[in-house]
Amino acid sequence: MFETILDEEERGQVGIGTLIVFIAMVLVAAIAAGVLINTAGFLQTQAEATGEESTSQVSERLQIVSQSGDISDNVANTSERGIGSLEFVVASAPGADNIDLDEVSVELVGTSGQETFQLDEDPPATNEIFTGSANDNVLTDNSDRAEVTVDLESDAFENEDGYALTEGDSLTVTFTTASGASTTTEIRVPTTLVGDDGDSVRL
After folding, report:
1. Among 2, 23, 103, 111, which is least packed, fewest CB within 10 Å?
2. Which superfamily does CATH assign the domain made up of 60-202 to?
């Protein structure tokens, strides 16, 4: 069944061949293991970055506490009553890190078209933190509150008619933080505004 090798020189040659094959197998296995380890490390790093980015896009957003508008008897230089400016009280959403209001963009979408601008662009927007320990327009805590004012009749808009709202009009406002997290709210003006010129009404 087994061939007996009587020649000592032949026995040594068989041993060297087996050793060479064994070393080759070890080298191949080591290279494959290195490739797998590097790939696993890259995938782990990529997964962590993707997870952090996804979390920030969900949690690092603004939360609208209240929204109101100022009544104007002659909105947009017309004889119609409507809303000439909007006021929002905003806070950082639960779980959010620091949010720099100057890096927040605002998008207006209504019957007059679409407009996008930053909260640090004055006009048409102003923002001011009035509670908490925040500095430099940065919300650092969930208890911080900021007042954001948007002048719908501002000359800074590309649309010459502005975005002033008359009775019964609606407007979609979207706030997007630097991380890409968005908060959208719908502004609907009542068909009949109750109040005097300059009064504030909740919307």
Report:
1. 2
2. Immunoglobulins (2.60.40.10)
